[in-house]
Amino acid sequence: MDQYYSQVYHQVSSDLENGGVNYKAGLNSNSMKEVSVNGKTPQNISSSIVRKKSDPVLVSSNVRFQMLGYFLTNLQEVILGTKLAVLFPAIPLAIAADYYKLGRPWIFALSLLGLTPLAERVSFLTEQIAYFTGPTVGGLLNATCGNATELIIAILALYQNKIHVLKYSLLGSILSNLLLVLGTSLLCGGLANLKKEQRYDRKQADVNSLLLLLGLLCHMLPLMFRYAIGEGTATDFSTLEMSRASSIIMLIAYVAYIFFQLKTHRQLFDSQEEDEEEEEKAVIGFWSAFTWLAGMTIIIALLSEYVVGTIEAASDSWGISVSFLSIILLPIVGNAAEHAGSVIFALKNKLDISLGVALGSATQISMFVVPLCVVVGWTMNIQMDLDFSLLETGSLAFTIIITAFTLQDGTSHYLKGLLLFLCYIVIAACFFVHKIPQSQISEGRPFTGLFAA
């Protein structure tokens, strides 16, 4: 009998350790038929008790372990799957700095550091969702979320009526993509491929250059109109109306560009895929990616609010102009992931992809985010227009023209990249010494409510 119970104990223990309970096999063994009490063996009773009372616990425990394992896998892919993960602690530090009312420059700096990995992870999550939604919806999602950080900062600056911060940050994002991101990509790619001829498809560059020139025209017309007619209330009203009409045209052009890119001429933008490598697959599920994306968007909105609310204090404390912080520092943070990706592809001599990253992002800011802010400001009764002032518009004009000339022959070398990068350094130096009165940073009519007339 003792030997029999020992067998039962070892059988149940073995089944529990292996995660699956095979009670029928145990009950039908020859050893368990030797003893019977009222038609039931002790083994039947024992297994019945275990099955009724323990099976739900085992199933529930397995489900919990599976959910925990699934969450840890997602956590590893989303949070630890980037080299920028070391900057994630800046997020709770920024929140703590705001909660304990520490210095506002500290909140600004920590928020910028926290936004850097978040911007990169948003791009990763949109790519994961694109695996499940198909190329068209995935392309639209990437086009919408590709500059999520810049868009959120712009909307919050608009809501707080900080028009200069808004214009500076959007202008800086365009300049950063065209001169810093593209310039360093061509420079690094040229140095890494000195003995190879670097070529790219001009068609993609021509399309983006035309869109950027259209956006430049819409920026220059309000500026030239104001200088031609002169200052005055009537001029301000006309400039505002012209900007709103131009913004609608720009949004229509951007929708046409998306249709052109994803439908009718998609081959122009898929010209250099890695056919020799294995097809990539999603590493997390659709709903997991969607949930992570929603959560990170909320955190980006919180940190962006910190950035917009503390930028003037950081400017005063550090002795650096608001224009430099907005045009140079903020875009570097927002474009960190795109910058790294573009350089990596250029090092591999895949210039079509590098151009797609840099030019595509600049086009999206110029033709989608800027006019969208004008339209949103229209609904909020805020005077957001396309007049970015003379110095800012001139910098934008020369940047677009220089970039278009640089890309006109379909070939590249390191000198082109170096010159674009030096152009960015010159513009950065200009805005480093550029000072504007604090009273102009928040100029514009006060916010009176959503959709106010």
From TrEMBL:
<dbReference type="GO" id="GO:0061993">
    <property type="term" value="C:calcium:proton antiporter complex"/>
</dbReference>
<dbReference type="GO" id="GO:0006882">
    <property type="term" value="P:intracellular zinc ion homeostasis"/>
</dbReference>
<feature type="transmembrane region" description="Helical">
    <location>
        <begin position="390"/>
        <end position="407"/>
    </location>
</feature>
<dbReference type="InterPro" id="IPR004837">
    <property type="entry name" value="NaCa_Exmemb"/>
</dbReference>
<keyword id="KW-0109">Calcium transport</keyword>
<protein>
    <recommendedName>
        <fullName>Vacuolar cation/proton exchanger</fullName>
    </recommendedName>
</protein>
<comment type="similarity">
    <text>Belongs to the Ca(2+):cation antiporter (CaCA) (TC 2.A.19) family. Cation/proton exchanger (CAX) subfamily.</text>
</comment>
<dbReference type="GO" id="GO:0009705">
    <property type="term" value="C:plant-type vacuole membrane"/>
</dbReference>
<dbReference type="GO" id="GO:0030026">
    <property type="term" value="P:intracellular manganese ion homeostasis"/>
</dbReference>
<feature type="transmembrane region" description="Helical">
    <location>
        <begin position="283"/>
        <end position="304"/>
    </location>
</feature>
<dbReference type="GO" id="GO:0010351">
    <property type="term" value="P:lithium ion transport"/>
</dbReference>
<feature type="transmembrane region" description="Helical">
    <location>
        <begin position="324"/>
        <end position="347"/>
    </location>
</feature>
<feature type="transmembrane region" description="Helical">
    <location>
        <begin position="171"/>
        <end position="194"/>
    </location>
</feature>
<keyword id="KW-1133">Transmembrane helix</keyword>
<dbReference type="InterPro" id="IPR044880">
    <property type="entry name" value="NCX_ion-bd_dom_sf"/>
</dbReference>
<feature type="transmembrane region" description="Helical">
    <location>
        <begin position="106"/>
        <end position="125"/>
    </location>
</feature>
<dbReference type="InterPro" id="IPR004713">
    <property type="entry name" value="CaH_exchang"/>
</dbReference>
<feature type="transmembrane region" description="Helical">
    <location>
        <begin position="137"/>
        <end position="159"/>
    </location>
</feature>
<feature type="domain" description="Sodium/calcium exchanger membrane region">
    <location>
        <begin position="106"/>
        <end position="262"/>
    </location>
</feature>
<dbReference type="InterPro" id="IPR004798">
    <property type="entry name" value="CAX-like"/>
</dbReference>
<feature type="transmembrane region" description="Helical">
    <location>
        <begin position="206"/>
        <end position="225"/>
    </location>
</feature>
<dbReference type="GO" id="GO:0010119">
    <property type="term" value="P:regulation of stomatal movement"/>
</dbReference>
<dbReference type="GO" id="GO:0015369">
    <property type="term" value="F:calcium:proton antiporter activity"/>
</dbReference>
<comment type="function">
    <text>Vacuolar cation/proton exchanger (CAX). Translocates Ca(2+) and other metal ions into vacuoles using the proton gradient formed by H(+)-ATPase and H(+)-pyrophosphatase.</text>
</comment>
<keyword id="KW-0926">Vacuole</keyword>
<feature type="transmembrane region" description="Helical">
    <location>
        <begin position="414"/>
        <end position="434"/>
    </location>
</feature>
<keyword id="KW-0812">Transmembrane</keyword>
<feature type="transmembrane region" description="Helical">
    <location>
        <begin position="78"/>
        <end position="100"/>
    </location>
</feature>
<keyword id="KW-0406">Ion transport</keyword>
<dbReference type="Pfam" id="PF01699">
    <property type="entry name" value="Na_Ca_ex"/>
</dbReference>
<keyword id="KW-0106">Calcium</keyword>
<keyword id="KW-0472">Membrane</keyword>
<keyword id="KW-0813">Transport</keyword>
<feature type="transmembrane region" description="Helical">
    <location>
        <begin position="354"/>
        <end position="378"/>
    </location>
</feature>
<dbReference type="GO" id="GO:0006874">
    <property type="term" value="P:intracellular calcium ion homeostasis"/>
</dbReference>
<keyword id="KW-0050">Antiport</keyword>
<dbReference type="GO" id="GO:0055062">
    <property type="term" value="P:phosphate ion homeostasis"/>
</dbReference>
<feature type="domain" description="Sodium/calcium exchanger membrane region">
    <location>
        <begin position="289"/>
        <end position="432"/>
    </location>
</feature>
<feature type="transmembrane region" description="Helical">
    <location>
        <begin position="245"/>
        <end position="262"/>
    </location>
</feature>
